[in-house]
């Protein structure tokens, strides 16, 4: 597993260099070389039997200097139970969240995700953590991702499932459903329960 993660991380770095090169180069021949380099990366990914159908289109859409993706997550409690949503992609449960959308602040993105996925209206009040996905026991993935976790207070709304999250609910510490560790780890959730007593003074970061 460790070797696989290092392999994916190395290919991710090569892809970032190629993306940045494509954006900045003025030489037509260099442009061609960077595009060939991306094709070679796709081949290496394919050899590991990872789906590459959308690899090149997605990479080329991400113009400019290559930077990590940002995943926004919202920690919401009600009566000492945490808000979770079941993901259609893997059938597992996570705290609400997703990729940051352009045009919204970090906090607004977290608030928006909660409303869209669960029907609950919240306000972000504290940035709990800003983590590097690679430094935590999430399953390996090709993208380099930063994850922002916001503590949120409930303003209103009613639990309402969505297309992406067909089931939503509040769960106690000892009644958690199977967790989507691609999005949040069980250890992180247990730490969030610990914050019910007192929020940390400082934001955790890697």
Architecture overview:
The chain is of the alpha+beta class and 206 residues long. It has 2 domains: 2-61; 69-205, Alpha-Beta Complex (Nucleoside Triphosphate Pyrophosphohydrolase). The protein has helices spanning 2-24, 28-47, 55-61, 106-118, 186-194, and strands spanning 69-78, 81-86, 93-94, 97-99, 120-132, 145-157, 167-171, 204-205. Strands 1, 2, 3, 4, 5, 6, 7 and 8 form an 8-stranded mixed β-sheet that branches. Helix 1 runs antiparallel to helix 2. The radius of gyration is 19 Å and the shape is elongated.
Please write out the topology.
Layout: H1 2-24, H2 28-47, H3 55-61, E1 69-78, E2 81-86, E3 93-94, E4 97-99, H4 106-118, E5 120-132, E6 145-157, E7 167-171, H5 186-194, E8 204-205
Parallel strand pairs: 1-6, 5-8
Antiparallel strand pairs: 1-2, 1-4, 2-3, 2-7, 5-6
Helix pairs in contact: 1-2
Helix share, percent = 25-40%
Instruction: Please give the CATH architecture of the largest domain.
Output: Alpha-Beta Complex
Tally of separate domains: 2
* Derived structural class: alpha+beta
Q: In whole angstroms, how far apart are the ends? A: 21 Å
Q: Strand tally, please?
A: 8
From the spread of the alpha carbons, the general shape counts as elongated
CATH superfamily of the largest domain, please?
Answer: Nucleoside Triphosphate Pyrophosphohydrolase
Uncertain residue segments: none
Q: Assess the beta-strand content as a share of residues.
A: 25-35%
Mean model confidence by pLDDT: 90
Query: How large is the radius of gyration?
Result: 19 Å
Main pleated sheet = 8 strands, mixed
């Amino acid at each position: 597993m460790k070797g696989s993660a290092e392999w994916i991380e190395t290919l991710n770095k090569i892809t970032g260099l190629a993306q940045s090169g494509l954006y900045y180069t003025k030489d037509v021949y260099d442009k061609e070389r960077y595009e060939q380099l991306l094709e070679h990366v796709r081949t290496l990914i394919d050899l590991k039997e990872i789906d590459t159908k959308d690899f090149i289109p997605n990479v080329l859409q991400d113009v400019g200097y290559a930077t990590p993706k940002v995943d926004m997550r919202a920690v919401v409690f009600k009566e000492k139970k945490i808000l979770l949503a079941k993901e259609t992609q893997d059938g597992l449960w996570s705290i609400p969240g997703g990729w940051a959308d352009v045009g919204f602040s970090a906090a607004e993105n977290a608030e928006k995700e909660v409303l869209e996925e669960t029907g609950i209206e919240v306000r972000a009040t504290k940035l709990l953590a800003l983590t590097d996905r690679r430094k935590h026991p999430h399953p390996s993935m090709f993208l380099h991702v930063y994850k922002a976790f916001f503590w949120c207070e409930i303003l209103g709304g009613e639990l309402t499932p969505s297309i992406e999250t067909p089931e939503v609910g509040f769960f106690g510490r000892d009644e958690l459903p199977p967790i989507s560790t691609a999005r949040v780890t069980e250890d992180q959730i247990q730490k969030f329960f610990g914050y019910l007593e007192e929020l940390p003074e400082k934001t955790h970061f890697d």
